[in-house]
Amino acid sequence: MITTARLRLRPLTLADTDWWVELHSDPEVNRFVGAYTREQATARLTAIEEQWQTRGHGLCAVELAATGEQIGRSGLNHWAQFDEVEAGWTFARAHWGQGYAAEAARAVVDWGFTTLALPRITAMIHHGNTASTAVAARLGFTVLREDTLAGRPITVHALDRD
């Protein structure tokens, strides 16, 4: 578990399926990351659990430390097609604009550099996602390249370990 002043991050599991579907059902949340059926969520969460087991990292549920409420997801995801580890973040709309994405992402990036000794972490951001681009810039990420993920254009930002 990773903790910050306001947040707790814990590995996502299959027990989070209903919450995952609900988080991604909001059209404003899913316009860049997509919506999920229960079957798709189960497959994705199974893959996340496998990544935790095989790589020692994966995506996390982000909870408010004070209440335990799940407000989003963040973590490190390995993309085999790029052979890169990405820091990602997605939050429920009710929790936008409060600095939670940057706080959670900073915690997972720091954890990736210190605990996992990753040399570089990327952030793959879909075109038009200005909020995530701002979070990446706030954390010190810079543009690395343009690419495609799941058939959609992305800008890959990168941050190297100091």
TrEMBL record:
Domain N-acetyltransferase: 7-155
InterPro entries reported in the protein's UniProt record: Acyl_CoA_acyltransferase, GNAT_dom, N-acetyltransferase
Protein name (Swiss-Prot/TrEMBL): GNAT family N-acetyltransferase
Pfam family, one: Acetyltransf_3
Keywords: Transferase
Gene Ontology molecular function terms on file: acyltransferase activity, transferring groups other than amino-acyl groups
SUPFAM superfamilies given in the database record: Acyl-CoA N-acyltransferases (Nat)
Organism: Kitasatospora acidiphila
Keyword Transferase: yes
Superkingdom in the source lineage: Bacteria
